[in-house]
UniProtKB/TrEMBL annotation:
Family indicated by similarity: Belongs to the sigma-70 factor family. ECF subfamily.
Official protein name in the record: RNA polymerase sigma factor
Pfam families reported for this sequence: Sigma70_r2, Sigma70_r4_2
SUPFAM superfamilies the record matches: Sigma2 domain of RNA polymerase sigma factors (SSF88946), Sigma3 and sigma4 domains of RNA polymerase sigma factors (SSF88659)
Domain RNA polymerase sigma factor 70 region 4 type: start-end pairs: 128-178
Organism: Bacillus bruguierae
Length: 189
């Protein structure tokens, strides 16, 4: 029997044991592929510490999804998990950097104003607020967007939504309460 075939059989047995809950078998798999997975991730991220962190996260993911593994090329399977996770991490990091640069541009304006309506005056500030508005519950988001970003009156919003003006007022009131509870001023700095 060739060494490669022996290694494949050994690996299959390790995977089966790991799927059955053997931490020892999973540790051996980790040690076997740690360097390889790190290289895959580092090739995408190009940052040593981030690649080390993401490698750890990938092994947690592999452990989580191992019971679903179908024995169709283990190395390919873990490579796909590592690649996808590294790409997601890189995108998230890029968004954070973009948001950080956007908030640095508006930092002085935000510090001088404590009123959320004043924050909506410039285009950059509207972008920042729009990003935060995605966090709002949907039933509040519509009226907040209509009133603050589209600058519609309560009456216009009520007509658009086939609702009473009092309903619009109440939704805006509750949205402001939600914002005060969930947003912090430093989120906008």
């Amino acid at each position: 029997m060739s060494k490669r075939r022996e290694r494949t059989i050994e690996e299959k047995q390790l995977i089966e044991k790991a799927q059955q809950g053997s931490e020892h078998a999973f540790r051996i798999l980790i040690e076997t592929y740690r360097h390889y997975i790190f290289q895959v991730i580092f090739a995408i991220l190009r940052h040593q510490e981030d690649a080390q962190d993401v490698t750890q996260e990938v092994f947690v993911k592999i452990h989580t999804f191992l019971p679903n593994y179908q024995f169709r090329g283990f190395k390919t399977w873990i490579t796909r998990i590592a690649t996808n996770h590294a790409i997601d991490y890189k995108r998230k990091k890029a968004r954070e950097n973009e948001e950080l640069s956007l908030s640095k541009k508006t930092q002085e304006d935000i510090k001088s104003s404590h009123n959320i309506e004043a924050l909506l005056l410039t285009k950059e500030q509207k972008l920042l607020i729009a990003q935060k508005l995605r966090e709002l519950p949907k039933n509040y988001r519509d009226v907040v967007l209509a009133h603050y970003l589209e600058e519609r009156s309560y009456q216009e919003i009520a007509a658009q939504q086939n609702a009473e003006v009092k309903t619009v007022e109440m939704k805006l009131y509750r949205a402001r309460k939600w914002i005060k509870k969930h947003w912090k001023e430093e989120d906008f700095l």
